[in-house]
Input
Amino acid sequence: MSGTGGADTGGGPAAPAAARRNGDADWDRWPVHDYLRENYRELHPCDAAVIRHHAAFYRALPPDGIDASVECGAGPNLYPLMAAAAACRRVDALEPGAAGRAYLRSQLDGGADASWEPFYALCRGYDPALPPRLDGAMARVRVVEGDLWSAPQGGYGLASMTFVAESVTESGEEFARLCRRFVRQVRPGGLLVAAFMARMPSYRIGGGPVWPAFPVDTAAVREVFAPHTERLRLTRVPKDPTLPEYGDDGMVLLRASRRTEQGPGGRG
Output
């Protein structure tokens, strides 16, 4: 990790480096193609577990029952967008980074990469209410520039977040604030579905820089979400040995709804 900074004060131990926060990383330069090559050019067992979990969540909803949903920090991962396309009439892919937005727009304008077809086949196998073709599902998606700090609160019936809050900061306080902002994307009573990498430290994609992350586990996710949600359900997915070694210990998957009355927990 670069950027230690500070003056040499002599023989004492070095002061611990300050936790890097979301705003310290250049998300416009996120290595989209290295990330896709390492993670999404084939369907991994952990992807199948997330798709199965999300499909059960969406299958319980009536087709077209949600007017608009949001995928927070969408990045270049298309399968959370696909999975929402039966229940949600519009899916907003909220993305702060220029590189991520460019990839998403290329997939909407020119058709999705062929490597996404097995992901969609699995999505539709679990949820036959999805459109027959991937392009039909993606037609419901629109790319929105922005992040959890700038997005209006309470504007959606459903919000999804996939490997975001824990993968953009080394600060536990900022992780919690990002999760609270995620909850507040939906109206009181609105639905939430999410996936988190478990115990993942700051990480490297390809040969590029180290990106900030905050290691979380099921207990940490429960602690953040329980005061602000109802019907909270967490599912643990074991580590997937077919993925690159990022130092993680699997995944934590979440289903919940926003409390209709605000619980304790502070602002932000």
